[in-house]
Amino acid sequence: DHKSLKYIFTQRELNIRQRRWLELLKDYNTNIQYHPRKANVVADALSRKSGMIAGIKVEEEIIRDLERLDIKLYVRGQHGYWASLRVEPDLIFRIKE
């Protein structure tokens, strides 16, 4: 919850996190609006989704490399590939080898 960002430009004293946000925002013309969690249901649900699902375009060679690592790849689409990929600890270990 980042409701405190709504008041970042009017506060006299800022903590370290707020200072970092202010440093990031100072170069932009911003209008910060707070949306309560219940008013932003879709974004909240997406931010809490477990695993990693991404749309990626990959080359044939990359697909073969992934198959050699025993990664299950579900391919759809005509102009690219849509893949569902979940990285498990044992996969990370095999990649490091």
From TrEMBL:
GO terms assigned for molecular function: RNA-directed DNA polymerase activity
Top-rank lineage group of the source organism: Eukaryota
UniProtKB keywords: Nucleotidyltransferase, RNA-directed DNA polymerase, Transferase
Protein name as it appears in the record: Reverse transcriptase
Organism: Tanacetum cinerariifolium (Dalmatian daisy)
